[in-house]
Amino acid sequence: AGEGSAPVPGDGSGPPAPERVLFPPTFSVSEIKNKQRRHFMFLRWKQQQRKEKLALKKKRRKEREALGHKAPPKAVPKTIENQRVYDETTVDPNDEEVAFDEATDEFAPYFNRQTVPKILITTSDRPRGRTVRFCEQLATVIPNSHVFYRRGLALKRIIPQCIARDFTDLIVINEDRKIPNGLVLSHLPDGPTAHFRMSSVRLRKEIKRKGKEPTEHVPEVILNNFTTRLGHSIGRMFAALFPHDPQFIGRQVATFHNQRDYIFFRFHRYIFKSEKKVGIQELGPRFTLKLRSLQKGTFDSKFGEYEWIHKRREMDTSRRKFHL
Questions:
Q1: Domain residues of the chain, as ranges?
Q2: Each residue's pLDDT tens digit, 31-69
Q3: pTM for the whole thing?
Q4: 3-class secondary structure per residue, the chain
Q5: Quick one: fold of 87-316?
Q6: Percent of the chain with pLDDT over 90
């Protein structure tokens, strides 16, 4: 590949060889001194790797077709998710204790259809334009939600006013350096309160190939992979933000997908292309949440009792250990 290397078949620098390996087993791109040549040979090497991988894949597929039903089962690739460390708080769907706790917790009135969600969305003091636009777009996703700007009012004064006006949930969007970076979700009137770190915020105009503006139809809600007791509590908090009966004619879906304790939010509209094919359009906004704490009762930063706090040095000892 470098100076003094053997001629490459077909490049006119020597007689063509019938069987010649393009790169020897001990080939190292880093040994090439010329930067342009090094980059060129790296691309050639990657191309050869892809061809070999594709050829091996075709060979295995032909072998499986030849064996038919006698073919061995496909090997399941190892991932962090399927190698997850077992969590003793993982919920069994038939667990009577879990069913009793959920029937008597703070969200029971919502799931028993005794309350209708009414959401107040507010911000930190003096929000910037990006945070304001994010709150306005979030209000179009969550039905029956109202945006209120703080103007220096403390949360301890806002919460009693929310309860007096029959609000069921309070969402606070915090920002740092003009970028939304935190979300506080408090269920009213008795809590709990969850504090999330927010990242990867994308407004509608920043999403490529987005669909048209969302309609006022009540969306469907999808909650994925909230498997532990803590995860169930967080999932029920998100579910309680949306009315019970979605309007399927709107074809809009709000998704909270938990993967490795990161909660990815997406808002889509689905389109029926045929009887068997369905397409989706992302409407936005999108963002990612990471749970930092879960507190009993409403927001109280000084005297609040915490059910769960994320402690990085104690809890993040293994990449295969998840809490939600």
A1: 29-67, 87-316
A2: 888 889 889 988 988 999 999 999 999 998 888 888 888
A3: 0.78
A4: CCCCCCCCCCCCCCCCCCCCCCCCCCCCHHHCCCHHHHHHHHHHHHHHHHHHHHHHHHHHHHHHHHHHHHCCCCCCCCCCCCCCCCCCCECCCCCHHHHHHHHHCCCHHHHCCCCCCCEEEEECCCCCHHHHHHHHHHHHHCCCEEECCCCCCCHHHHHHHHHHCCCCEEEEEEEECCEEEEEEEEECCCCCEEEEEEEEEECHHHCCCCCCCCCCCCCEEEEECCCEHHHHHHHHHHHCCCCCCCCHHHCEEEEEEEECCEEEEEEEEEEECCCCCEEEEECCCEEEEEEEEEECCCCCCCCCCEEEECCHHHHCCCCCCCCC
A5: Rossmann fold (3.40.50)
A6: 49
